[in-house]
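hi support,

uploading two proteins for the ticket. first:
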Amino acid sequence: MKHRNFRIAWSVAWGVVVVLLCVLWVRSFWWWDMFRLLPSANSWRMGVDSAYGSVALGLGKGETSWLTSNPIDQTSIDLLTSSMRENTFFGVGYLSAPTFFSVLIPHWAMILLSATIASIPWLRRSKRYSLRTLLIATTLIAVVLGIIVFVSRAG
């Protein structure tokens, strides 16, 4: 039980991140939130957008404000969904235009990653692997490869 307090603090901190990401996910269906780093009218800027269930991390030109939040209208929804359907796989993908490039990550993936990070300190580390562990790992790898082949042939 070494470092028990650290484990608890780590899990609580990442648990707060998970809750905040869930709130941002729900909000993203009504509001388009934009945060810009290094805003300037004439140079490239880095930014993070949250809209319609995804977070976009990207580079672009245009916006000069640090933080903007706009309601999502039907035109924005049509633009976002058509672009996201073309260039994404399970919500992960990219958007590209002459004035910007963004990598899309769905909120659910970020929540899953944060929850996994929160639970890592509580996992027991074993130095021995059993035959059962090897068979489970092999089965999971085969299932993932099968899904990849199925999706690539269906598309």
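and the second one:
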Amino acid sequence: MNLKEQYQKLLEDARAIAAKAEEEGRDFTADERQQVENLLEEAKKLKERLDRAKADAEMVRQIMALNEAFEGEPQPKRKPGPGKADGNGSIGEQFVESAEFTGWMKQMGGRIPEQAKGLRSPPVEYKGLLKDLVTGSSDTSAGAFVETDYTGIYEALGRYPLVLRRLINMRTTTSDLVHFVRQTVKVQEAAPVPEANVTEYSGATGEESGEKPEGAVAFEQVTTPVKTLAVWLPATKRALSDAAQIRGIIDQELRDDLAEEFEDQILNGDGIGENFTGILNTAGILLQAWNTDLLTTIRQARTTLQVTGLSWPTAMICHPNDAETLDLLRDNDGRFYFGGPVNGAVQRVWRVPLVECQSMTEGTGLMGDFRKCVVWDREQASIQVSDSHEDFFIRNMVAILSEMRAAMGVIRPSAFIEVPFESGS
């Protein structure tokens, strides 16, 4: 497969991924985005190689054309000046008629002996050869024919992969306040009951009243408000009109920034002001103490979650640096605990899926049943454009605003446990 076919194949693969996401009416997944970025990077490298090959071929063509034109003109023969060719005639004529070559031939007796080996003629300087060299780096030479190829490829700086939305429970709301009920006391009074043997129970020895135990249960109503996340950028109308691509880039950048901030709020929001109350700052989540080593601590956290929190973990999230620490753990024989570099399966620790999350503070993990965290979408990320900001109207400027509204709540705090990844954390 030649370079052009490889280039086309990479673009076709990238278009197939984009078409699938568009057909399903969704954004790229983290894996799809990484695949597309890799394909475009490889395509960009191949395009550069193709451009260089194309430019080289064009330069060769021009050189051959110039040479043919030069050779086709009659050139007067002139005797060479002392010590150098004077630049008239072909390069071959200049060489054989030069003073250096003719003098060397006289020393050889006018001809080169057939048995001679390792001969080397003296160097001959060609007048004007370097001065007239055709180069691709000069605008007055072959470079004047080279046109810039604008590919239209845009490579963003990239953002952290977002993982929480595929773990937590996503719902919608049409209100500005969301209420949910959380159980605070559960029924624990059930017991075996003997059959009654008297009509009126007095408490005498041998009497059985047959009375069933009464249970107790309690609830609390939790109210969580819908909050707004927003960001905007100023732009000139001319920029949006002259560079059609920039509008799509700005819109996507604003949406991505909202999504990144919302993921951080879901996990780390402190509940102060307009901040959400994130999982890690929700009252009632469990905390595992460090014990012996990392693997022992994680296993005990799972036990605590099941015994105390009465929950089954669906995942444990941690910072990528902590995931690397787990990956590199070895036994006493130097063998990797988690399969080493060739293990392509989903990483699990004590049978719990491990998910890398950039929003998670390094040195701490969070294990839990992430279905017990619920997000209610009130208004998904939207884009609005207006020139009504300050004096933007008379300056031909617009404000591009992106905002989203949502509420979130942890319906069972004891379904989550914070796990230290190092002693003392």
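thanks. also noticed: The first helix runs from residue 3 to 23.
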